[in-house]
Amino acid sequence: MEKETDLLLEVHERLLRQYDIDRWHWRAETPPLDVCLGAILVQHTAWSNVEKAIANLRAANSLSLETLSALSEEELALLVRPAGTPLTKARRIQVFVNLVLGYGGFAKLFALPDDELRQVLLATPGIGPETADVILLYAARKPAIVNDAYTIRLLRRLGTGPDGDRYDTWRAWLDARLPDDLAFRWANHAAIVVHCKERCRVRPLCMECPLTDICTLGSQAV
Hints:
The protein is mainly α. It folds into two domains: 2-24 and 145-221, Orthogonal Bundle (Endonuclease Iii, domain 2), CATH 1.10.1670.10; 32-139, Hypothetical protein, domain 2 (Endonuclease III, domain 1, Orthogonal Bundle). The chain contains 13 helices and no strands.
């Protein structure tokens, strides 16, 4: 495990030196509602489409829990249409918004113990493990592990990671090897996503990659 941890920390340091992760769409000052809306809307679509949907909500003065809850399903679906499957995502947003309102707001919901909060999120229709962990990390600001296809792709190419692709298996594997620190986990996931969008794509752009010398795929491209 120590060798794997050393590799993950080395990757983290190299990626932070390479990229300005302020380009990441969530920052410390991003409101929890914006994070949660983004986490729901980004399912099965590109982030550029999410930005269009959120811009529609902002233009309609609908970026509040109370306003989102009061909209009809059809009205909300029209606003979030750029993110795809508008009726489905409108329903998911309103179920989530009503969950938050039922707890008396984000502060009270996020005050739940980490494990309990995750179970509450997972019990909410439309929120799966990855979405729940994104909300935990970027909205509730708890040191959760977010696993995704980018992480699996990168670590497979670096020759590490657990067997199989099960979300919970990867989540546990990463949790045991990464520092239990909010700032680290926040930046680590962001840096991996930025790197995989820029260079470690399905068809990778290995030239000038900061990980070439420790990547089995990249070393073949040199």
